[in-house]
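Q: I'm writing up a methods section and want to include an example of the input and output format. Could you take the sequence below and give the corresponding predicted structure tokens, formatted cleanly so I can copy it straight into the document?
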Amino acid sequence: MIAARTNLNKGFTLIELMTSLTLFMVVMTIAMGSVLGIFDSNRKTQSESTTMNNLDLAIETMSRQIRFGTSYHCGSAGDPSTPQNCPSGDNYFAFTDSDGVLEQYRLNGTQIERYTAASPQWIAVTAPELDIENLNFYVLGATPPPDQHQPKVVITVRGYSGAAAKTRTDFSLQTLVSERRIDNGQ
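A: Here is the clean output for your methods example:
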């Protein structure tokens, strides 16, 4: 009779089941938090990659056009088709492209914009997800008389992508572009 009674008492008590279930729920909650954090991080990385690729394309295209251009003009004062140095920097830049067309770049709000005679309106060249806080063009060696120094433009861009503080990524870029044509004193 005693042996039969011990077989009936085998199993888990209600307290043991509740304790193990609570422990399981705590572990699952922590694990789900980690998984959701990984998803957020992945989403931020993809978004950042897309916006930074856009900025890279905009700066690379701008640099290529400037490299093959002439008559660099920095600053909103004066005739944009006349070369003008700007050692202290400005957020407006104009030059004559390789086809002889005047091109202009400026910072308008939080966007870099481009204007050409081919499309006579200012067009944003950066994505709306990018917030450009500062754009400066520094031009040296552009004004006559030729000084045996290549005309050059330093472009600096500072801003951020991601509107929420949790997803915000700051960036700061600088590039130097020199005119392709040799400044030989002519």
